[in-house]
Design a protein that fits this description.
about 270 residues; alpha/beta; Rossmann fold; 7-stranded mixed β-sheet; two-stranded antiparallel ribbon; about 30% strand; disordered C terminus; binds S-adenosylmethionine
């Protein structure tokens, strides 16, 4: 098992999406009916979405950011589990539309927003969540291998650049005591992920795992990232005189919570 197998499996899944996902269809997962739009990752062709969605420790009454929401199953589920505020982001326009369609279908548009964004770029500095999660595109491809279509982003991360940015930027979008999770698998490059985690002064632990016999054997892993021993999450305050600029500052938690930047079109 490993990176080679991961690449083969992801290529096969991408091909299946390209060939068989030309029309909208519906599928059943977690006892509910969902819409799937063309060009969006199919949550019913691998167990990954269902496993992570049922394992996440949703912050009841709190806020949840789903990175890369795809069809929106996890984001909608979070809203149904009692999250007060859910934000779903995806780099793919089709995924954002699909997430909104499923939010409407399940009656959670009052507390779920979906936006197109390359990772955290659409967020205002200082916008924080109790839990941030990404079921990531954990198959690493060479740096030179561009993701040619939006759908490629669902599977491949060239040189783990998106993973690097996720680990670097997510901490600034967590409430004090907020949790940062990553949905990963044995098809990913664990050595590289560990290096990126250490580079950011973080450490990772396994919250839950499950092995499934697909065409290849895959272990699905829900990982939690925390500041490495002896450190805390970076404390960020916003310099309101320079809009959009972020000045790392030590602040008491109450002051941190009230730091409310004005970020133009940002969320
Ligand atoms: C493995 S799919 C998971 C989809 C969905 N969450 C699920 O579980 O069915 C990964 C998702 O991350 C999105 N993604 C990849 N790179 C991204 C980026 N840089 N910014 C935002 N979303 C990204 C993809 O478009 C895709 O929808």
């Amino acid at each position: 098992m490993g990176e080679e197998t991961g690449l083969g499996r992801a290529r096969e899944l991408l091909r299946r999406h390209q060939e068989e996902s030309r029309q909208a269809r519906s599928f059943t997962l977690l006892g509910r009916e969902w819409e799937l739009h063309p060009g969006v990752f199919s949550p019913d062709w691998t167990p990954v979405t269902e496993l992570f969605t049922s394992w996440i420790p949703y912050p009841h009454g709190g806020s949840f950011l789903e990175m890369g929401s795809g069809a929106g199953v996890t984001a909608v589920w979070a809203a149904l589990q009692g999250c007060r505020e859910v934000l779903a982001l995806d780099i793919a326009r089709a995924a954002v539309d699909n997430t909104l369609a499923n939010a409407r279908r399940h009656g959670v548009t009052d507390r779920l927003k979906a936006l197109r964004s390359d990772l955290f770029t659409v967020l205002a500095p200082g916008k924080v969540f109790d839990l941030v999660f990404w079921n990531s595109n954990f198959v690493e491809t060479p740096a030179a291998a561009d993701n040619e279509t939006e759908l490629h982003h669902a599977f491949f991360d060239p040189a783990y650049e998106a993973h690097r940015r996720y680990l670097e930027q997510a901490p600034a979008h967590l409430t004090p005591g907020g949790r940062l999770l990553l949905g990963f698998s044995s098809l990913g490059n664990h050595r590289h992920l560990r290096e990126l985690v250490e580079d950011q002064g973080l450490e990772m632990s396994l919250l839950r795992k499950e092995v499934r016999q697909l065409p290849v054997t895959v272990e699905f892993q829900l990982l939690e990232l925390r500041p490495a021993r002896g450190r805390g999450w970076p404390e960020i305050a916003v310099d309101k005189h320079r809009l959009g600029a972020v000045t790392p500052t030590r602040l008491p938690p109450a002051a941190q919570r009230s730091a409310d930047p004005s970020g133009g079109p940002h969320v």
